[in-house]
Amino acid sequence: MSSKTDDQLALAAGLTAKTQQLCLGLESGAADILELVTPTTAELLLWWFGEDMVLARQGLNFHAGQKQAILNAIVAHEVLGQERDHWTLLDLYQASAPDALLTGNRMNEVASPKHAHPKYCFKMATGTGKTWVMQALMVWQLLNKTAALAEGINDARFTRQFMVVAPGLIVYERLLDAFCGKLVAGGVGGSGRDFSTSDIYKFADLFVPEAYRDAVFAFVRGNVCSKAEIGLKATGNGMIAITNWHLLAEGEVLDDEVEDVEALGAPLDPHLVVGAVLPLTPGRATGNSLDVLDRRYARGNVLEFLAGLPELMVFNDEAHHIHDFKKEGETTEVEWQKSLSRIAATKGRRFVQVDFSATPYNDVGSGKNKRKLYFPHIVVDFDLKSAMRAGLVKSLVLDRRKEIGALPLEFKAERDESGNPTLSEGQRVMLRAGLKKLRKLEADFAKIDPHRHPKMLVVCEDTTVSPLVAAFLQDQEGLNEDEVMTIDSGKKAELGEKDWAPVRERLFSVDSHATPRVIVSVLMLREGFDVNNICVIVPLRSSQAQILLEQTIGRGLRLMWRDDEYTDLKRENRERINAGQEPGSLIDVLSIVEHPAFQSFYDELLNEGLAGTTGDDTDDTSSTGDVLAAELREGFEAFDFGIPFILQEADELHAHDGLEISTLPAFTAMSVEQLTGLLGKGDTFISQDLQSATLFGDYRVDGAVMNVGGYNEYLSRLTRRISQALSEPMPKSNKIATHLAKPYLQVNTAELTGWLDDYIWTALFGATFNPLEGENWRVLLLQPVVDHITKVFAVALLESEQKHTTGQTEVHLRMLSEVPKLMLRESHSVEVSKCIYTRLGWPARNGGLERAFIHWAQADTQVQAFCKISENRHTFARLRYVKEDGLPAFYSPDFLVRTADAVYLAETKAQQQTAHPNVQRKLKAALAWCERINALTPEQRGGPPWHYVLLAENVVYEWQAKGARLAELLDYARLRPLANASLQTSLI
Asked: Which of 463, 396, 466, 481 is nearest to 431 (CA)?
């Protein structure tokens, strides 16, 4: 990067350095930033970036570029901007990069009125997830504002009022999809959408901590306003307005401002007379269209509404549309930037502008003096080079063909003898070259995955050329009408809302369908066309503007092959391109069929080893490199494995036979008369504290155990006492709890009370006893009587308890053959004969141990069948365990091996890894799982018992060198169950 560019991006560099220092130790929860932000922000940071949560989400996380963007925003706005009455771009420079203010005209530039509010620009490459960063920042703002208001604080740093501005229709509708979900049948605009398909809902595990999820969902669902609803829709204490910049532009975007000169003697211009009388007049192009008048009137109301809000955070997606442009040497603000300034005028630091763009610069100068002038408020720089190095976007190659190199430099559309436009020969050659590449990709990709459909994007110079391209592809290259789709900026107006909806749906779902194969566009798809399968781009253009080129290429950068099994291949491609070699395959490689006249656009990427070239000789090589599909072999059933899943276990139920009251022993220690003599006639004494008048504990003076007011209450207390006695030891105080934490539930308490009543009346004293006669029931309160009844019933209940099993253990076997093929590298795989698949592979890096295991298993005649488990494909072949930090996780063993006597789960590990705490925890979990499976019958588990084996690298090579059999090692090294292994199941 040039020193001039470094100077322009000094704010991003300074802020990033400060942020990284504050965030040291964030993953472990020990960073300084956690003490400088609100408790809500601290909770969000640990949720997003804490090591425990990142590991638990298993891949659903922010990548390094997104993480830096979020952290820089929080440091710039919340940390550096706290306790400041005003917070401008100049203040941010002084806090983060003060030296940058001394270079050139930067001080005067950032001190201008249009920068007199918080203003941040995120320079992030296309395809690197700018929308996720936007939504994370919105959650940060929303939750902080909500928490502050709950405490009665109106913190100026946070807001619940948001506006998201798109540059055009495609981006606008993509944003509605991201926030509200996809349109459902019959839905138009912001309504009729399936919220469960929105980003904020689908990826809630990443964006929002669980405790706040319902509140965030409710806010988004109730407060999103489409461009037609801004200022009109009733929202609840907040708003997410989604619009495009046309709604805010007060005039034509490129109108020249002409200084008014008053000429009193000249006749009045009729337009001025009409304009002075009427508040609105129709435009010339659309005649007297009332729709246009309505929109212009509504636009004024929207501006008034937004200007009247006390606070607002504006997110500008694809923000290169919104800033200054130069015309005839003078800098002019685009019209809708003036609208933003008007909205911001009354808000001070409560107006926040957040811009997102892959190309936040203007081209200035011409010829050799042409250069990029970057926006002054860029706070993070995650450019295309960084994204390519990280493998977050496709690799880029130029398609150099001899016939293209021989083209004349003039390849604009020409005119025929009748004056009608027609494609030049140069354009035809480029289209044929692109189509040839597309056909090769289609054929090669179909061999490994017939559901992946590569596409070609043709970018035309204007709308007169796009129909010519479509006609050429259909008439001369044999494509069908449905295989070519033409989209340009006037398409929606041409079709109308009703007919545009299916076109839009087809355009946005091209990844899922074989047609269209080619998409022809002018300007409309320059931004926001976020599909993954664009693999060939043919730029038929005459413009040499760098910004247009980068936006065009950006349409094809999103990854098409995201599966982990292609990671090694893509990494090798990047390494080959970096070394100046052609890529080994075209998996996630974007091919640009470019005219040599525009080679200079790519020089910077080529020189840094980030873009490569392909030539004619690649036509004979496979686009997929050495990737191949290992299919199920004929007769695979003999080598298949069924993994037992226990769907339902048999239940052991406890029940009681009815008690035979007449057989229960009577109380014979004393007669009723003797017991009556033990009773006093007095009342119960109650203690009362004299100072507080608090009543506490009754105490007995007459030998009774319970203080009850009648026989019915006695039965209730006695029932509870027996329940408690059967659940846990009686307390020394003989106190009976009014509510039991662990009651004895094996018998119905109402039934028990009935048995007690019958026993007292008929069998307690060996004869009929009427407790309701006189005060007879008071005899039952005495300690010996209570103890006798409790003991008799406790023993009787336990003896009558019956245990029986209901239902059956239900086991389902999941077969490895449910996965019909594995994607392997030919150079890192081998043909096998004792596996359900024709080949098995190993990792390109550090896969030597697994390779040795496969060869050994293949050669051992005692091994009847084996298979290497694919973590990406055999997603059901995994065990749950609890990591050292207490969080649950899954892991897949490396191999399944079957011998005549057993099935082995085999895990191969390097020597130094076997003692790792998490490896030991996996070991215990696997052992417990095997014990549980082995408790099933052989029929239920599908055959022989299961065992787990952890093999260290040195053990494998040592036994193999001695000529031992793999089956012998597995039997020797299998883990034997511990005495308490079954207890481990409670931990997993």
From this structure: 466
